[in-house]
Design brief:
This protein has helices spanning about 25-35, 80-90, 90-100, 100-105, 110-115, 125-130, 130-155, 160-185, 200-215, 225-230, 235-240, 270-280, 300-315, 320-329; strands at about 10, 20, 40-45, 60-65, 70-75, 190-195, 220, 225, 250-255, 260-265, 290, 295-300. By secondary structure, the chain is an alpha/beta fold. It has one domain (about 10-300). Strands 1-2-4-5-6-10-3-12 form an eight-stranded mixed β-sheet, with helices on both faces. A four-stranded mixed β-sheet has the order 8-7-9-11. Strand 4 (about 60-65) and strand 5 form a beta hairpin. Helix 2 (about 80-90) packs antiparallel against helix 7, helix 2 (about 80-90) packs across helix 8 (about 160-185) and helix 7 (about 130-155) packs antiparallel against helix 8 (about 160-185). The protein is globular, with a radius of gyration of 19 Å. The relative contact order is 0.17.
Length: about 325
């Protein structure tokens, strides 16, 4: 199995039960090897790292030479999934490495496209002119999410459902904003979701629904955010967004980057996830006539070969056919 994790290098306070740590080389390469651009890959394999412990560590990795970002988070339910994904993407280690001054200065999309087509939040005039202000805006957004989640856990709210809903919307917005910005900068992004075994059917169904919504938010048709165009229920949000001109010969949007869903009994998630991906939410009235088709696949020999080649290349070695066959067995 190419997804192997060794020691981590944590950069946050060890007292934080939801800290972020840097993903090691083999973990980064394994996730990338399993990912298929524009699709979701199901990996039937256990995970053995600190995400199994009470301190649910989030992992991030970035390869500047390959313009490649990886986040790996544990997810047993909707809230944990979207908040962990968003705060991992907004972690200082990833933001500061990916959103460098030089990369941001090379950004070609106009502010109107970034704000009103891709629907990237946090892009004030100051943030667009000052790379440091933009980085701080995303990091602060992630920190605020962590604070709100702590308040939810402590019962510091008047209406739990409303408060939880506001956290979910903010987390979806943050994750979608960073994924779309990475895409505008030419940075590939792989999301690895680690699902513990033994979840009940209701939990799996809720998780499948949330994954499908996140997939729509993190998809694009040209430079347009798909969820805002197809499924947004808030009229003011739809009215403020730019609308695409749909090419009848090319009416399909795509998932940005790739998603890897990993777990020892992940096959149990597949039926509901397939169903949810077809209809993440109710289609908005007068929605543009395009669709996003995201297929589900399982990890194959190619993924093992890709991961093994990159891991051994690090040591100036190359895998043999026999080695790949043994790993794939």
């Amino acid at each position: 199995m190419p997804l192997v994790h060794g020691r981590i290098r944590s950069y946050s306070d060890n007292s934080n039960p939801n800290r972020t740590a840097y993903l090691d080389h083999s973990g980064h390469v394994g996730a990338v090897g399993c990912g298929e651009a524009g699709d979701i890959t199901l990996v039937d394999a256990p995970f053995d790292d600190q995400t199994d412990a009470p301190d649910h560590t989030r992992y991030v990795g970035f390869d500047g030479d390959r313009e490649e970002a990886v986040v790996a988070v544990r997810t047993s339910g909707p809230l944990q999934y979207v908040v962990s994904l968003a705060t991992a993407l907004a972690s200082p280690r990833l933001i500061n490495r990916a959103l460098t001054d030089s990369r941001l200065e090379s950004l070609e999309d106009l502010p109107a496209i970034l704000r009103d087509a891709r629907c990237i939040g946090g892009l004030s005039d100051e943030a667009l002119e000052d790379p440091e202000a933009l980085r701080e805006a995303f990091i602060e957004w992630g920190t605020d999410l962590e604070d709100l989640t702590a308040k939810l856990s402590a019962g510091e709210y008047e209406d739990r459902d409303r408060f939880r809903g506001s956290i979910m919307r903010s987390a979806h917005g943050l994750a979608g904003s960073i994924v779309h910005l990475f895409d505008a900068l030419g940075i590939d992004v792989v999301r690895e979701l680690r699902v513990p075994s033994g979840l009940d059917t209701n939990s799996l169904n809720e998780l499948a629904t949330t994954i499908s919504i996140a997939t729509a938010i993190q998809s694009k048709y040209g430079a347009f955010a798909c969820y805002r165009q197809l499924f947004e229920s808030r009229e003011e949000k739809r009215q403020s967004a730019l609308s695409p001109t749909v090419d009848a010969n090319d009416p399909l949007g795509t998932l940005i980057g790739s998603v890897v869903v990993r777990g020892e009994d992940i096959y149990r998630l597949r039926p509901k996830l397939e169903q949810s991906l077809e209809t993440p939410a109710a289609l908005a009235e007068d929605a543009p006539e395009f669709a996003v088709l995201v297929s589900l696949s399982t990890v194959d020999r190619t993924a093992y070969a890709s991961a093994a080649t990159r891991i051994l290349q690090f040591k100036n070695l190359r895998p043999t056919r026999e080695t790949i066959s043994l790993l794939h067995a």
